[in-house]
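Researcher: Quick test of sequence recovery. Tokens follow.
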């Protein structure tokens, strides 16, 4: 399913269509609400840089995290990052570089390349030059024996100098729970819930 006006904010930029609903993108389950504000966009977040989104997780045994992230005005410099915090001492930071980890949602004169390994395209609109990419982040073994407590997205960009938007998060854990328990784990206003995926 495609959602018209996936975000009121993005609609201002003629960004009308993104996938939504309970679906698989790049063989990973996501549940993207069919609402008018179903993303977090750092351009419209409040406060000084870095613009920050903190997601409470509270899952044990997370081995990988999948994110749906693209940019406005993408830059090759590492102006965005994702930080993973464990319940004890585990910590991992992934810096997101334009033209490798992330790129612009619209094919234009900004960043247009991805590495096609840890970042792959999972959606493109046949009627508009809109696209959505999925990132895979493998967590270090220090997370194996503690909870993944929070995921923190940070953006140091500015208007005309990159701003990220996040439209989905899925956590992969081992072992996978019973199928009846593969449900949304986190409900966030304006963001896809986290879902489980077998590694």
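Model:
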């Amino acid at each position: 399913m495609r959602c018209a006006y996936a975000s009121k904010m993005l609609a201002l930029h003629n960004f009308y269509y993104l996938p939504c609903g309970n679906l698989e993108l790049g063989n990973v389950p996501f549940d993207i609400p069919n609402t008018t504000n179903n993303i977090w966009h750092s351009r419209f977040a409040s406060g000084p840089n870095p613009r920050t989104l903190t997601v409470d997780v509270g899952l044990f045994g997370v081995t990988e995290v999948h994110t749906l992230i693209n940019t406005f005005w993408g830059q090759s410099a590492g102006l965005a990052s994702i930080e993973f915090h464990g319940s004890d001492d585990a910590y991992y930071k992934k810096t997101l570089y334009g033209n490798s980890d992330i790129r612009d949602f619209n094919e234009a004169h900004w960043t247009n390349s991805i590495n096609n390994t840890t970042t792959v395209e999972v959606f493109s609109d046949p009627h508009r030059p809109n696209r959505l990419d999925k990132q895979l982040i493998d967590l270090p073994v220090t997370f194996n024996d503690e909870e993944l407590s929070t995921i923190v997205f940070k953006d140091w960009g500015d208007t005309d100098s990159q701003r990220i938007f996040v439209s989905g998060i899925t956590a992969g854990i081992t072992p996978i729970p019973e199928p009846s328990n593969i449900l949304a784990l986190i409900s966030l206003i304006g963001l896809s819930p986290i879902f489980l995926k077998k590694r």
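Residues 8-11 form the longest helix (4 residues).
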